[in-house]
Amino acid sequence: MNKQVNFEDSIFIALMRIKMLADIIILDGDPEIFLEKVLDDISFTDQVLRLLLEQLSLSHRLITRDELLQNLSDAEGQFYRFLDDFSRHEGNISIKTMPAVYEKLMILQKTSKERRETIDNLCNKDLPVAEDDVVSQDELKELLKAF
Predict the structure, then answer these.
(1) Which pTM does this prediction carry?
(2) What residues have CB less than 8 Å from 43, skipping those under 6 apart?
(3) CA gyration radius for the chain?
(4) 72 CB contacts (<8 Å, ≥6 apart)?
C-alpha cells in the first residue's frame, strides 16, 4: 500500500493533543465526565507517536527526515512530561487512587522514553550511501557524451 504521510502536520496535531491534555488536567473538571476521555486520548496519542516513528524510521530518503525526527523527539518529550505531571497530579482528574491506571501510565511513560531514545539514535546515525545509487565520474561522462 503506497501512501503519503504529511509528517509535519501529523506531528503538529499530536503536539496540540498533548497540550490539550495538559490543559485539561490543570482545570478542575468533573472526573466522571472527563477521566475516561483523557485516558482514551492518552492511549490514542501514544499510538500516533508510535506510528509516526515507525513511518519516519522507514523513510530514509525523505529530505527533511532529520528535522521531522527532531520535531517528533520534541513531541515525545512533551508527552513524557505530560505523563509525569498527570501521574503526580492532585486535582479533580487524578489517578493516584487508581493503581491499574497509574501502572499503565508508568508503562506508557517508559515506552515514550524508549521511543525518544530511538529517535535520538536515528538522528545521530549516518546512513551509508547505497553503492548501487552512486555514479562514478567516468560513468557520468559516458552518459553525458550524447548531449
Answers:
(1) 0.78
(2) 108
(3) 21
(4) 7, 11, 49, 52, 53, 56, 119
Helix axes 31-58, 7-26, angle to 10 degrees: 160
CA distance 10 to 7: 5
Going from N- to C-terminal start, the domains of the chain cover 7-144
- Candidates 97, 108, 99, 118; CA nearest to 41 is 108
Q: What are phi and psi of 10, to 5 degrees?
A: -65, -40
Q: How many CA atoms lie within 13 A of 138 on its CB side?
A: 0
pLDDT per residue over 83-122, tens digit each?
Answer: 999 998 888 887 888 899 999 999 999 999 999 999 988 8
State pLDDT tens for residues 54-84. 999 888 888 888 999 999 999 999 999 999 9
